[in-house]
Fold each of these.
Amino acid sequence: MIPRHYLFDTFRGERVHLGVCGSVAAYKALELTRALVHLEMPVEVTLTTAATQFVTPMAFRAVGAAAVHTAPFHLEDPFQHLQPGELARAVAVVPATANILAKMAHGLADDLLSTQLLACPGPVLVAPAMNPRMWLASATQANVQVLRQRGVRFVGPDSGAVACGDMGTGRLAPVEEIFVEILRLITPQDLAGMRILVTLGPTREYFDPARFWSNPSTGTMGASLAVAAALRGAEVTAVCGPVDIALPRSVRRIDVISAQEMFTAAMDLFPSVDMALCTAAVADFRPPRQETKYKKDGQSLALTFAPNPDILAAMGKTKAPHQRLLGFAAETGDLAAAAAAKLERKNADLMAANPIGQAEAGFASPTNRMVVVDRSGRTESWPVLPKTEVAWRLLSWLASL
Ligand code: C5P
């Protein structure tokens, strides 16, 4: 399953051509097709003859492929070998066998897929899958080097156990990684060269070895921003509170538990970044921590909480003129007024406020309803949108400041 925060509406209508080769991993190309189709991206598929021994053309049609090609030439369409290069935004070969890599490296065109690839000016992505000995064979490695030099994007292969039982490098990369890399290949790189820090998730404030004080943040808004920024070419580091949320490998991830740990990790990184996106729901207070477990004795437990450091405010105090800061505000009442006040108080550049206590916004929701304010006073009120769309818009706004 592709995580929901990897699904950006902006790719609707972008055509991708998928080449599938004969490998046990060929069935995973079905999941990939389904995910691309879910974004309403038209996907055409070419199966090699060997691929049809593992998966059927019908299965690709059934998961929504716009067309499936197998035969090299067709009476009705004698030029189908030219179409991916002319019409698709990218061609992805998933899984790619040693054979197709060899053909691509040497310009062989003896079946439909290899002919389509030769006639495609790019961009091309390959996700290899094969036995580790085949991957490590010097012929394959030489072909890989040639293809990399020509700009072919490789995703994987990964290490671990392969289908035949051998251990080593040759497993198909996870489908969600391939999916993200295909999207990245066709995304305008408007944030290339930017270093972006995202804080996300809740923090946990332990008051004994077994118990903590926290909040229900899932990190979805921050993860959406991290993925969007990575797709747009930024170098992204995510400082994550304890959340079970997937991030692509292209995002550097630093896991922390408490607000104080998050503060230290984020402030260490802050001087070296161009943007900081503070989405974390940091606990404002922390209880004193006792090293032995509190015993239940029928009495009430009274703890005096101390204030935690405010990461966004600390960044606002030390930020350099080129640095941009995004903050979030979960509010009741007048969102625009609250956002403007918080923007000022924390010296941020953009403040996004969402209402508290509504089903379609805030904690654990895949959507958000935002009022966004910048320092010039520009204020926008957005309808309920997927958090991925909110993330895309916020990055565009920040990049324009
Ligand atoms: O002051 P308040 O907690 O409402 O501000 C919310 C904004 O400040 C969010 O962007 C949040 O990530 C950030 N924040 C922070 N460190 C804190 C508290 C909030 O970075 N200790």
Note: Residues 195-284+303-400 form a domain with the Rossmann fold fold (CATH 3.40.50.10300).
Amino acid sequence: MQLFAIFGDPVAHSRSPLMHNAVFKHSDYKACYTRIHLKDGTKLRETFFNLQLSGANITVPHKEAAFAACDEIRGFANKVGVVNTIAEEDGKLIGYNTDADGFIFAIEEFKDIKKVLILGAGGTAKALAVRFLEENMDVTVLNRSQGRLKFFDELGCKSASWSDFELSSYDLVVNTTSAGLKDDALPAPKELIEAILDATRYAADAIYGKVTPFLALAEQKGILYKDGADMLLGQGVLANELFTRKQIAKQEIAKYMRHSFLL
Ligand code: NDP
């Protein structure tokens, strides 16, 4: 029996155990997936080995710590320095990032996205910014504080904090901050968010399982929006493929995970 887990702080809200366990159960794969409330990201590696995990997902705020905890990084995670999936291989921790492709999957029905505003500058924002640039989109990053913006400037994005932001028009605005996750906060002051939503065609939030204040405002304004559920599904399918080493077909994984959303 293999054991998998999600690490985060907070982590109680995570639907990943339901999603992965649904796949394991319905495909007779001998594994179980649990959640671990980890406060100190530097303890990730030792906790992983102490619990003899075969793999893990990592959520807020430990994705950068997860990158540092790995022995080897593969694929897209190398470009962003952020890991959301770890698979154990011969006693080594191999790190991956499945968030960005999960998001591209989620916004498939949004058409002609050329100009994007990302709210937040954490791990998710990094992954999305790199992926959007790969799609030749024009990317601006707006964050509460200045400190994390350098990465985006060097990448070729425009960037600003609340005090020096200059509004433009956008095809899509994505909230990747954790504002609204455990509180009723907006990702930026209300006047700023109102102005931004008035200047966009679509809105999306990485947070799932609730209508965040950001999406509630988008809805009020009649803007087509998505919450993070489809992004969660997309990243989960790709992570499960890595955990089970492609022994289960992608379509089957997606079917069982989608089904778990109804539970
Ligand atoms: P990080 O901790 O790496 O980054 C958090 C960001 O949010 C920082 O830019 C921080 O700004 C900003 N922030 C935090 N609180 C506030 C606030 N009250 N107002 C404005 N800005 C704030 O987080 P992640 O990138 O890992 O995750 C972000 C969110 O995305 C989480 O809610 C997570 O659950 C969700 N998520 C969902 C996924 C899905 O599959 N649906 C996948 C991945 C993430 P500062 O730099 O100033 O501190």
Note: The mean pLDDT is 96.
